[in-house]
Amino acid sequence: MIWNPTKECMNAEDKRRLQGERLRKAVDRVYHGVPFYRNKLQERDLRPDSISSIDDITKLPFTTKQDLRDNYPYGLFAVPMSEIIRLHASSGTTGNPTVVGYTRRDLAIWSEMIARCLSAYGADRNDIFSVAYGYGLFTGGLGLHYGVEHLGATVIPMSSGNTAKHIQLIRDFGATALACTPSYALYLAETMAKTGWPRDDFKLRIGIFGAEPWTENMRKEIEAKMGVNAYNIYGLSEIMGPGVSHECECKCGSHIIDDHFYAEVIDPETLEPLPYGEVGELVLTTLTKEGLPMIRYRTKDLCSLNPEPCECGRTSIRMSRIMGRSDDMLIIRGVNVFPSQIESVILELEEFEPHYMIYVDRQNNLDMMEVHVEVRDGFYSDEIKVMMELKKKLAARLHSVLGINADIKLVEPYTLERSEGKSKRVIDRRVLK
Ligand code: DLL
Predict the structure, then answer these.
(1) For ligand 1, is residue 234 a contact (CB within 6 Å)?
(2) Distance 144 CA to ligand 1 centre (A)
(3) 322 lines ligand 1 (CB under 6 A)
(4) C-beta 160 within 6 A of ligand 1
(5) Residue 11 CA, ligand 1 centroid: distance in Å
(6) Averaged pLDDT in 10-residue chunks for the chain of 433 residues
(7) Are 243 and 233 in contact (CB under 8 A)?
(8) Residue with CA closest to ligand 1 atom 4
(9) Span 330-428 CATH architecture
(10) Can you give the pLDDT at residue 93?
(11) Is 339 in the pocket of ligand 1 (CB under 6 A)?
(12) Ligand 1 pocket: which of 301, 302, 321, 338 to mutate (most atoms <8 Å of CB)?
């Protein structure tokens, strides 16, 4: 079902007009409400009435995570704190966390966005959702939670952790939908199988997976192991949280909720906009957000955009899967390596489990990459020769995809640490001098 056909199936011309009007209001809001933006706009001789259509967006300055950190905690909020009714924060790897604030209207829009996503996955008010994203400062748990309620379905606020209990409640409460990270879904599926409970005891039919990169092969793996239809959900705290884009039954790209967020893809080096179809950094502008409006926020996420209307009837622009981040890309011996490429290779080969770790080191000024990967039950052997063959096979495949050699360490099934939230799969120990 399409939750909001007026907005989701709008024709291109009307959409552009709506986006243009909303952009002008957004610029007006930041010009008058956020000194940081007013200065940036004035530096470029821009005023709200410099925006006459959505195409004028390219005149506007970019915003980065550093800008949010520099204005910690509330410097970029566009309304007084009396209007803010919720805060979330995303933990930074370094420095201050990024704090985001929502007005009552922001939260209402967010819930409606999530209801749109869930409808696109085929869910309705009869569904029972286990929300296993973390509740708390992370936007995943509460974001999904209010969306499920807005849809009118039932929500089980599981949060993350306590896997055994979770599996029992999924079964006992008859959960039909599961929301968590894809890596945790794999772990859950594996643990469910170990309970020995018949698959028919579980009613799960829809999976809502995001918050970290995943691949088509991972989708197949989760669907086969868990018996669900697995769908992507994308989002980031700075823009709203989960639900900025979502897949539909066609599973051919994620629909951006483009009446609320305007998407561009730029070359991260030159900062010039790229044509549709080309991979670059996703830049998002919030068109209606009141609490923390973002103008041309550089997500660092790499993807491409497709403006073609989708077979599902939605006309919103679609984004590809995230192919990596312009800042988590590994440069190994001068070669750009995306962890997702390594994951794809591992998942293509039936001998391996989708559990792996990548270690990067520098020895004698030479980058070394070591990939630890679990061998699937049934393929693990005590015979050195068999394991050497497996290792050779994976190394050759990795070399043909990446163009560099990786040291492979094969480990027994179920020995690598499982994650309950976002998985950490790359450990870069290089000290760059
Ligand atoms: O991860 C929001 C979210 C929660 C999305 C639950 C989906 C489901 P942050 O913690 O701010 O917010 O992290 C945002 O996570 O810039 C991407 O790099 C990555 N990310 C989020 N969703 C996806 C996805 C939430 N579907 C950062 N595929 C983003 C790939 C994703 N990467």
Answers:
(1) yes
(2) 13
(3) yes
(4) no
(5) 29
(6) 97 98 98 98 98 98 94 97 96 68 98 98 98 94 98 96 94 98 90 94 97 89 96 97 98 98 96 97 98 97 97 98 82 80 92 95 85 96 95 95 92 91 88 61
(7) yes
(8) 140
(9) 2-Layer Sandwich (3.30)
(10) 40
(11) no
(12) 301
Q: Return residue ranges of the chain for CATH 3.40.50.12780.
A: 1-327
Atom of ligand 1 nearest to the CA of 300: 16
| Angle 237-239-242 from CA coordinates, rounded to 5° | 55
Tokens of 419: 């994650």
Q: 244 alpha carbon to ligand 1 midpoint, in Å?
A: 10
- Asked whether 325 lines ligand 1 (CB < 6 A), one says yes
197, 257, 284, 287, 339 from 295: Cα distances, Å = 50, 16, 7, 9, 29
Interatomic CA distance for residues 63 and 285, integer angstroms: 9
CATH topology of domain 1-327: Rossmann fold (3.40.50)
Q: Which residue owns the Cα nearest ligand 1 atom 14? A: 236
Q: Which residue's alpha carbon is nearest to atom 20 within ligand 1?
A: 211
Is the CB of 343 within 6 Å of ligand 1?
Answer: no
Query: For the chain, where do the domains classified as CATH 3.30.300.30 start and end?
Result: 330-428
Residue 233 Cβ inside 6 Å of ligand 1? The answer reads: yes
Cα(186) to centroid of ligand 1, in Å? 17
pTM for this predicted structure: 0.87
